[in-house]
Structure formats: structure tokens, C-alpha cells
Amino acid sequence: MQEMKPLNIHSYLPHNEIEKLLEGVEYIMMASPSLIKDAHPIHFTIILNTSDPIPEEIKPLILEKFSQEHRITAASHILSNLERVAFAMTPQETPMPRHLIDDAEANTIPWKLLHIIDFLGDSDEFQEAKDGLSGWSYSYN
Fold this sequence. Notes:
This protein is of the alpha+beta class. The chain has 4 helices and 7 strands; from the N terminus they run βαββαββαβαβ. It has one domain. Helices cover about 20% and strands about 40% of the residues.
């Protein structure tokens, strides 16, 4: 496995730029190496471009759809909620979505409430994450 090096965050998008960035975005898919020993090897985060509550009975169906599309197997440690998401400017071409958990940090960084599906899993389509790299991609309507 390659050594993981954190991306340097230069700044965060302000609220108006977050809104502009998300125009036409359906979802954002992130994959990174799992940090939990003896668990599934990939940490997935799917950020749906909605602040609307999703009914509990629909949440597993959404995860199932993404799992089928990306050949993700054996999901565990699943979180599916509205959460705070900031967008960091890094050396990468597109802003990096960042789930803000810490209240103090969320008070200092612009963010938007979006629906996150966060879980551990496995997929042959994300070998880079198994090799120690992280990445994200934006999917547009």
C-alpha cells in the first residue's frame, strides 16, 4: 500500500460558491482507504445534492442502487443522514467535499447541509482506494 499523504487545503468555498458549484450536480462519490483495521478496505462517502429529508424506508434502497452500479459489496458501518459538508480548495481540479463533524470547526467554515451516505465496503472498481489513494468525482444530472 502507498503511503497516504493529506491534501493541502488552501481555502474553503464561501456559501455563494457552494451553491454555484452544486448547480446540476446529482451526487458526489468519494472513496478512500478504510482506517478501521480488519474492516472492509474502502471508506465510501456518497453526497446527494439534497437537503430534503429522505424517508427511512428509502435510505437502504438508495445504498443498494449505488452498490449495484459500482459493484460495492458487503457494506458496513453505515451512516445515512443530513450532514454538514464543506468544500475545500486543494491542488486538485475540483473542490474536495469534506464532512464536518466537529461543531467548533463548523462554526468557522462555510458549509451546506446535504444528505450523506457514509460506509465501509469493497469494490474491484476502486483499486486506487485499496492502494492508499483517495478521490472523488461529481456526477451531473
